[in-house]
Structures
1.
Amino acid sequence: MNPERTSLATAQLTPTSYLVLGLIAREGPSTPYDLKRHVTATIGHFWSFPHALLYKEPPRLKDLGLLTEEREADGRRRRLFSITEAGRRALRAWLAHPSQQLTELRDLGLLQLFFADLEPATTPAIAHEQLALHRAQLAVYEEGRSTAPRGPRSTSPTVEHWRGVTLRMGLLYERAAVEFWAAVAAREPAPGSATARRRSKDGSAPKR
C-alpha cells in the first residue's frame, strides 16, 4: 500500500476503526461475532457505541487496505478478518498521538438528580436505584478481578489485558459512585417507607 493511500485511509478512521484494528491485532484473525464477544466482555464496560458497527466496520477497513478477509468455503461461511501491515501502521500512529479530549460523562442518574429539585419526592427512588445499580456493577468488576484463568488459553488475551489494565479504573469509578449515591440515599428516606410516604403527601422534608 503506497504512503498516499495509507494517509487517505487513516484520515477516514474513527474510534471504532481503531477498536477493531486493536482487537484483531491482539486476538488474531477474527469474525465480527468474535469482535462483539470481546467487546461485551471488556471494552463495552467503558466505551459505548452501537455494536452493529462491528459487522459494518471490518469490510470498510478491508476496502481501505487495513484488513484482509477470508470466507469459509462451506458451513457457516464466516468472514474472518486479519490485520495488514498498513493496518498495524495506522494503529501505531494512533497510539503515538495521545488523546487530548477530556472524559465525557453521560450519567442518566446524575441528570435526573440534577432536576429532581423540581419534583423532590422523586429523589429517594433515584438515589436508591442508582446505589443498587452501582453496587451490582462493582460486584461484577470485583468478580472479574478475582476470577483467575484456568489454563494458558482459558480466556482471550483481551480479557486478560482488561483485567490487568482498565478494570482497575472501573473498580475505582464504581467505588466512587457507590460512595456518592450512598451519601445521597442517606439523606433521603427509602422509597416506600412511612417517612417517604408522608413526605410525598405533604412535601415536607424528614427531620434529621
2.
Amino acid sequence: MTTRRQFLGGAAAATGIAFCGCAMLDAARAQQPPGRQRLPVSVNGKRVKTIDVHAHCLFHEAENLMGDDNTAFKSPVRGAPEAFITLEERLRAMDAMAVDMEVLSINPFWYHKDRDLAGEIVKVQNEKLAELCGSKPDRFAAFASLALQYPDLAVQQLETAVKKQGLRGAAIGGNVAGEEFADPKFHPVWAKAEELGAVLFIHPQSPQELAKRLKGNGWLANTVGLPTETSIALSHLIFEGTLDRFPDLKVISAHGGGYLPSYADRSDHACFVNPSGCDPNITLKKKPTEYLKQLYFDALVFTPEALRHLAAEVGPSQIMLGSDHPYPWEQHPVDAIMATTTLSDEEKLAILGGNAARLFGIGA
C-alpha cells in the first residue's frame, strides 16, 4: 500500500514517498474550471514546460534546530502549513496550477545565528532539498540555503550544493543582517556563483529599520516592506558597481523586482541632479536602467498591465513564471501570463518556461 510521507526527514530516504497516481492527477484536472490552463500547457499549439521559479518549502528538521526561537515556522499566513511538503498534495496543487516544475527556496531565517548553528541549518536544508529534488527530478529543482553572514562558509556551501547536491544556485534575502550585498565582504560569494554559473534568487524580508512605520492595517511589512527591500538591494548592486564587477552573475529577484522596474528611470538622473550623493570613485559602465536588462525577475505582478510594463522595462527574456506557492498570492500564475495580450506567443512561451529552462539548463 502506498503511504503518505512528509519531508520531515532525518535518515529517511526516498522509500515510502507517496507519488501522485494517474487517478489523482485526473481528479485534479477535472476540478479546474473550463478555460483554465491545464497540463500540458501549450501556446498556439506549441508545448511548453512551465517552470515556477518562486515557490517555497520548509523542513521540520530545521525547525527543531531553532529550539524555542522558531517563529519563522509558526506563520499565521494562509498556505504556511503546506510549506512542509507532503509530496502527493504538492504535486496535486502544482497540477491544478498547470505548473510542471517548481524551483524551491527557503527564505533565510538564520542570518543572525552563530556559525555552528547556521552551518547546521544550511546543511540539513540543502540535504533535504537535494533529497526532495532527487525523488522527482522532473517536478522539482531547488535553490540552496547559504550562511551568508559567514562568506567563507557560504562559498563552501554553494560549491557543495551545486557540484555535489545538484542544486541550481542559492536563495538569499534582501540583505544579510543589515549588511548590503554590495559590501566587498560578499564578493567571494558572488565570484563563486559566477564561476559555478549558479543562479541567485533574491527574496526580500521586511526592512527592520522601517518596522515602526509599517505597523497598522494592511500587512504593510509585507505589501510595502518587501518590494521596498528588493528595490534597495538591487539599487545597491547597481550603484556600487557590483554588477560591473560580476557581469555574468545570474540574479533573479522576487515580486517583479519590487518597485525598481516601475520607476527605474529616476535612477538615471540621480547623480546628475545631486553629484554629492554619488561616489566619484565609482564609474558605472552603463546607465542604471540598463542593468535591469542583465537581471531576471519573476512575473508575480498580478495584472496584465503590470506585466506589460515590466516586460517593457526589462525585456520579456528576463522574466520567469513565479507564484509564491504555497502562499496564495497568485494561485493561477500560468493563466496570468496567458491573459497578457500584449505578449506575443513566443514571449509567453519564454516567460512560462523557456527563459528558466535556458538559465537553469533544464531540459524539456
